[in-house]
Design brief:
18% strand, Spore Coat Polysaccharide Biosynthesis Protein SpsA, Chain A, alpha/beta
């Protein structure tokens, strides 16, 4: 069994995937790299096969019909032989020194006796934005204790500005299989589900304060580009609704700090959806916004009330043209700390 499986969903990634893969090869034989060619029409499949031929004990390649990012992640989970599991997108990469420290820590959890391996390791990630020299680092120093195994009750501070995103997560593979995670196909923004649905199954956590993952952001065709997000708003709403109905947070999530964190996570995703619909400003967008908030009420009245009582939530849902203008202002606030460009 490998220590860590890293799945790299690839779709028409010929221009940048080699940088990603080369950064992952630093992990050596402890790591299994699964390259999922998701029906690419460029040289992605050829490049992936070249790596598998050169590194047969490390790199595996899957060629499949196009199913989207979630389908690639699902494929990786189903094939993973590593004790731990991580997703790295093909246009991103990892820092080699932080990578080796993470592998050393995971190796320690597996090889030493005690209470067993941790369910989730969290590390920092960097917004590597195009045309910026100052890179924004997302860390969890104010939220999590460092260099110790802890549980959700040990969270120090739960802020609405700090979220555990896919880029910062390494799960124990068994956790993903136990929670039955299956991401929807042909849908963007499924990383929000990846960073949300397994959380109640996570009992033991560890935060390693290293800047590990470089999240490349700023390409015009990227899924987090503002105009692209508005054009794909139905997929954002689909993910949003799946998160809302995934759990009854009062009945299903017993730890109060985890429940608070998951409420906050749902709030920001719903706020982003609403902000994008406000930004679109069309009659159809307004209808979709009204339907989304009705959906929140039907599935999670407590979440609805929380968001309605929040200043940003109130500004997002004011009626008429005044409401739309306030919504656009609130959108700028969300835009600033959520990270889409």
């Amino acid at each position: 069994m490998k220590l860590l499986t890293i799945t790299v969903p690839c779709y028409n990634s010929q221009d940048y995937m080699e940088h990603c893969i080369n950064s992952l090869l630093v992990g050596g034989e402890d790591v299994e790299i699964i390259l999922v060619d998701d029906g690419s029409t460029d040289r992605t499949a050829e490049i992936a096969d070249q790596y598998a031929e050169k590194y047969p004990s490390i790199v595996r390649v899957v060629h499949k019909e196009n199913g989207g990012h979630g389908s690639g992640v699902n494929t990786g989970i189903s094939l993973a032989t590593g004790e731990y599991f991580k997703v790295v997108d093909s246009d991103d990469w990892v820092d080699s020194q932080a990578y080796l420290k993470i592998l050393s820590r995971l190796r320690y959890f597996i090889r030493t006796k005690g209470n067993g391996p941790v369910d989730m390791l969290v590390s920092n990630f960097i917004y590597d934005k195009v045309d910026t020299t100052r890179k924004k680092v997302m860390n969890y120093r104010h939220m999590m204790p460092k260099n110790t195994v802890f549980g959700w009750s040990d969270l120090k501070w739960i802020s609405k500005q700090t979220y555990i995103l896919m880029h910062s997560i390494i799960y124990r593979t068994e956790v993903l299989r136990k929670c039955g995670l299956k991401l929807p196909e042909h849908t963007f923004y499924v990383d929000n589900l990846f960073a949300y649905i397994p959380l109640p199954y996570v009992k033991r956590l560890y935060y390693l304060d290293v800047d590990f993952y470089h999240y490349y952001i700023g390409r015009e065709d990227q899924s987090v580009n503002e105009e692209v997000m508005i054009s794909r708003i139905d997929q954002q709403i689909r993910v949003n609704k799946m998160m809302i109905r995934a759990y009854d947070l009062v009945k299903d999530v017993h730890n109060p700090k985890l429940r608070k964190y998951m409420y906050n996570d749902l709030e920001i995703i719903t706020t982003v959806s609403t902000a994008l619909l406000n930004k679109a400003g069309t009659p159809e967008a307004k209808r979709k916004k009204d339907k989304l908030w009705k959906y929140v009420w039907n599935y999670n009245p407590k979440l609805y009330i929380r968001m309605k009582n929040d200043p940003v939530g109130r500004s997002m849902t004011l009626p008429g043209e005044i409401g739309r203008k306030f919504g656009v202002i609130a959108y700028r606030v969300v835009h600033k700390f959520y990270g889409f460009n």
